[in-house]
Amino acid sequence: VEAVVSTQSTGKRKEYFQNTPTIVTDALYRKFTSRGQSSTGTLRTSISDALRTKMVNHIAALTLIIDRFRVNYEELSRDTGIKPRILAETYRSMGCSCKKVKKPDGSVRAVAVLACPVKLPPLVFRKGGQKRH
Fold it and tell me: How far apart are CA 55 and CA 50, in angstroms?
């Protein structure tokens, strides 16, 4: 099984996922990284821009579900190291509105909100009963 990435191959993986079961870390590496050989012939894992975008999209979707469709993305940015601008773009692409919200203590935070259920615009019919696209 060549697709399985062993968590024993680099010290960094051990450092990042100290308390995470091996089966979980292997699944994460399979889903969000690609493997290849370096010029010295050793196996290396890397993440492309497409896989990074896929990972950010998954993080955004999970946080929306966990936080009941209202996420403080500046806090998420500090936790993950992903730029707030990139998170805001990702949430907007998922249908969220991103805005600054003032808390009762006077501080301001950046929040992405997904209105549920999503309301689609009504269909407009032409004369003769045909739908307009």
Answer: 9
Quick check: bond before 84 cis, omega within 30? no
Instruction: Tell me the C-alpha to C-alpha distance, in Å, between residue 75 and each of 15, 29, 62, 116, 130.
Output: 23, 25, 15, 23, 48
Model pLDDT for residues 13-56, shown as the tens digit of each residue: 556 677 888 898 888 888 888 888 777 877 777 888 898 999 99
- Dihedral class, residue 67 (left if φ above 0, else alpha if ψ from -120 to 50, else beta): alpha
37-48: b or e for each residue (b if 16 or more CB lie within 10 Å)?
eeeeeeeebeee
How many other C-beta atoms can be found within 10 angstroms of the C-beta atom of residue 108?
10
Q: What CA–CA distances, in Å, run from 117 to 69, 124, 129?
A: 11, 21, 28
Is 112:73 a contact under the CB 8 Å cutoff?
yes
